[in-house]
Amino acid sequence: MQTKAGLFIVFEGVEGSGKSTQSQALTQRLTDGGHDVLLTIEPGGTPTGLEVRKWVKTGQGITPLAELFLFSAARAALVETVISPALADGTNVICDRYIYSTVAYQGHGRGLDSDTIAELNEDATMGVLPDLVVLLDLPPDHGFGRKSDNELDRIESENDDFHLRVRQGYLAQAREDPDRWLVLDASASLLNLSDSVWNRVSDMLAGT
After folding, report:
1. How far apart are CA 124 and CA 64, in angstroms?
2. Domains in the chain: how many in total?
3. Residue 48 has pLDDT above 60, yes or no
4. DSSP-derived pairing of the beta strands 8-12 and 132-137
């Protein structure tokens, strides 16, 4: 694993769980506290990632395996050119989704081989793992209730069983690595969620 100077924090969750809202809230709190911080997103954050984001959300005929490789390519570009350099410079990095989404969506959701996913994740990240993973846990039907049908993209439009498997995939990962994961009930108020995240991050910044 590469040496990191800044904190690396990832937000995960099913569609509509509030990841973007909470990642932005944490970014603002860190900035207000005088900390250098970079907010990025998967897939995205690089020209490669932005193209992949368009393909996987709207493209037709993308197979599960092709989807996996597209996400891995975007991740490799993001880690090598954005995340690793920022961490090495002492910048705290907040990422909306990371390898855990691949395990949940392509592994548990699509049923792809877990060993293949693990190998691709290892290669794409160069061993760079987050210090904290915040899982905003929410039943899928609650998350989709925040969007109208015509706002749902290709992945969001999958059936209920798919999204239930994704949620269980997240919870399974959290159980396997409880020290790294902070699981929060995403139905709580935005302020309560933000405070819970900030309390954990504050302790990490203080080294406690």
Report:
1. 18
2. 1
3. yes
4. parallel
